[in-house]
């Protein structure tokens, strides 16, 4: 193929650079601001450093209020990690069965799951709160964990993937060899479905990590808060205690960096997983 | 969307019943039992977290709490209210205004974001792009920033006195006000666009990658320009991915909550009824009116379903015929 003319390459490069600036400038602001103390945060130019002491600033965030921030971070990890693992396993099993077993009511189940994909999560959060508080489950870890383990989109993706990636002949062969259904699923199907499972796990992890409405509605004990909820509770008090603005910025930085590193590393894998989903959709 | 595997499954099911009925029947019961074991754990939780709350909300939305006794301080009891809560919600100008606002928001922000995501995907996938890996990562990065944090971040970039953007504009003689009554909706749209363009771009790139390269080669040899290839080959081929991103954007827009919630203290025009979700939330927890909030949640779910089904119909019709 002949290389495109220079003019094209220059236009492409400049458009991509402008876009990159748009997406990166707020992140850059966050990095710069996380190194400032309260006075400098408000008193100095936002896009440049002023007397940076990143380690001191971030230690202050971690130490404030007996280390409540660390607890919030641990809660977030618990909600997102446990929730995503459970959601992935449940979706894998359900998607596999929907793809590979012609059982009565299968189409009905799949339609209900699809409708579940289309019902907005936050429209459900309030009713879920009413239900859970009637059951005495509100304001517990379970109030956030249980709904996080359900992913209709995960079932949808696993079904599509299993239909294409798990050959019937292999299942038949395993059955003739005398393997039980659970062993076939655990030993064969799960392995063949790995790319889809990684995608579901990542989606669900990010979804739970980013979810704000559900914990906001469900939790009132600040010891159970995930990190986002904790940070907004700080901004709520910042009028009376302006140093909390600084801690919010530092806390936001601390919570965002690990996820960004994770996404950068996993991006390649994520992309292949997405291809499998949308290609066959 | 799922018509492919669906049909394949049905064909197989019929095929399995073929020549030896007794064995087939045994297979079928075994299948059903195994399938139940795999599906039930998910279904049980799905019922608890999707169907039961919807049912409960539906029930609640049709009832009202009444107090008996002097001054209404006596015992509470629930009575059937018919559609009164719905009538109450639909007669509330602020709730309706919130809906209108969110629809306007979506009508502007979703097309803008999808056009931007498509343009970036096509640019990155064009042969003349250098540093693809860097740019892709840079565009995708904001997806890793939760809505709340993105809003806190942009909040600082919007507030006069702190915002370096306002400062720069001031020194150039422009007066920027991101949080005025007229602009704050678009400042919110900017936060959402910033967060999700890169994600949508990645979905589109994934679909572009699935297009065989020979197709472009052939078009090039036939003398098609880069623009013609994009317009007549790439865009039609990524249509399913465009539909997917469209539906998820519609659902996301209707749920708009965290962004206005975080900007509320900064912008006086963002009130407690700014979006339907915000309105339902304050109805439940500030107004102490869970039944009306339930009615509003049901209405929100209905509108979201109707819009996304409608969109899929509208956008999916031709693709389905072609297949």
TrEMBL record, chain A:
The cellular component terms of Gene Ontology attached to this UniProt record, alphabetical and capped at eight, are: plasma membrane
InterPro entries tied to this protein: MetI-like, MetI-like_sf
- The answer to whether UniProt assigns keyword Ribosomal protein to this entry is no
Q: Where is the ABC transmembrane type-1 domain?
A: 73-266
Q: Which SUPFAM superfamilies match?
A: MetI-like
PROSITE patterns documented for this protein? ABC_TM1
Q: Which GO terms describe its biological process?
A: transmembrane transport
Q: Which residues cross the membrane?
A: 12-31, 77-98, 110-132, 188-209, 244-266
Q: Which cell locations does it reside in?
A: Cell membrane
**Its topology with respect to the membrane?**
Multi-pass membrane protein
Which residues are the signal sequence here? none
Q: Name one Pfam family in it.
A: BPD_transp_1
Instruction: List keywords of the entry alphabetically.
Output: Cell membrane, Membrane, Transmembrane, Transmembrane helix, Transport
Family classification: Belongs to the binding-protein-dependent transport system permease family.
Question: PANTHER family under this entry?
Answer: ABC TRANSPORTER PERMEASE PROTEIN MG189-RELATED, ABC TRANSPORTER PERMEASE PROTEIN MG189-RELATED-RELATED
What is this protein's record name?
A: Sugar ABC transporter permease
Protein species of origin = Streptomyces angustmyceticus
């Amino acid at each position: 193929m002949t290389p495109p003319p220079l003019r094209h390459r220059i236009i492409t490069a400049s458009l991509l650079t402008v876009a990159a600036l748009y997406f990166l400038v707020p992140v850059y602001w966050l990095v710069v601001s996380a190194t400032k103390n309260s006075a400098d945060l408000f008193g100095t130019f936002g896009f440049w450093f002023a007397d940076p002491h990143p380690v001191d600033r971030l230690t202050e965030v971690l130490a404030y209020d007996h280390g409540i921030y660390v607890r919030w971070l641990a809660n977030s990890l618990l909600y997102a990690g446990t929730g995503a693992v459970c959601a992935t396993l449940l979706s894998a099993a359900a998607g596999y069965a929907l793809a590979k077993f012609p059982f009565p009511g299968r189409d009905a189940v799949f339609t209900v799951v699809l409708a579940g994909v289309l019902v907005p999560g936050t429209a459900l959060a309030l009713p879920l709160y009413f239900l859970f508080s009637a059951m005495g489950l509100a304001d517990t870890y379970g109030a956030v964990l249980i709904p996080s383990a359900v992913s209709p989109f995960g079932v949808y993706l696993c079904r599509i993937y299993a239909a294409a990636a798990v050959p019937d002949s292999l299942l038949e062969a395993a059955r003739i060899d005398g393997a039980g259904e659970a062993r076939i699923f655990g030993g064969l199907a799960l392995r063949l479905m790995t790319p889809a499972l990684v995608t579901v796990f990542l989606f669900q992890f990010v979804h739970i990590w980013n979810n704000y409405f559900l914990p906001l509605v469900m939790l009132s004990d600040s010891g159970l808060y995930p990190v986002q909820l904790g940070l907004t509770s700080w901004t709520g008090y910042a009028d009376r205690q302006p140093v909390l603005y600084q801690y919010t910025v530092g806390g936001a930085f601390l919570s965002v960096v690990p996820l960004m590193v994770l996404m950068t590393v996993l991006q390649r894998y994520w992309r292949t997983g997405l291809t499998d989903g949308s290609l066959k959709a | 969307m799922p018509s492919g595997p669906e049909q394949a499954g049905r064909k197989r099911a019929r095929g399995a019943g073929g020549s030896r009925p007794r064995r087939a029947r045994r297979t079928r019961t075994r299948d059903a039992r195994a399938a139940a074991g795999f599906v039930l754990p998910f279904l049980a939780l799905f019922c608890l977290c999707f169907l039961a709350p919807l049912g409960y909300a539906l029930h609640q939305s049709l009832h009202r709490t009444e107090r008996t006794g002097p001054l209404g301080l006596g015992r509470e009891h629930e009575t059937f209210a018919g559609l009164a809560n719905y009538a109450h919600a639909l007669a509330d100008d602020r709730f309706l205004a919130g809906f209108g606002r969110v629809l306007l928001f979506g009508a502007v922000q979703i097309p803008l974001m999808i056009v931007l995501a498509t343009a970036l995907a096509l640019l990155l996938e064009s042969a003349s792009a250098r540093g693809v890996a860097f740019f892709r990562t840079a565009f995708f990065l904001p997806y890793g920033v939760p809505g709340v944090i993105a809003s806190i971040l942009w909040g600082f970039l919007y507030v006069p006195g702190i915002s370096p953007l306002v400062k720069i504009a001031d020194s150039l003689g422009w007066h920027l006000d991101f949080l005025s009554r007229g602009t704050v909706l678009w400042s919110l749209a900017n936060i959402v666009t910033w967060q999700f363009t890169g994600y949508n771009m990645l979905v589109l790139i994934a679909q572009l990658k699935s297009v065989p390269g020979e197709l472009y080669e052939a078009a090039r040899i036939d003398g098609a320009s880069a623009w013609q290839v994009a317009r007549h080959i790439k865009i039609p081929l990524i249509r399913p991915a465009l539909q997917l991103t469209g539906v998820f954007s519609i659902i996301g827009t209707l749920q708009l909550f965290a962004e206005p919630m975080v900007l509320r203290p900064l912008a006086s025009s963002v009130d407690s009824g700014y979006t339907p979700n915000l309105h339902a939330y304050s109805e439940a927890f500030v107004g102490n009116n869970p039944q009306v909030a339930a009615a509003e949640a049901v209405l929100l779910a209905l509108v979201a379903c109707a819009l996304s089904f409608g969109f899929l119909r509208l956008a999916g019709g031709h693709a389905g015929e072609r297949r």
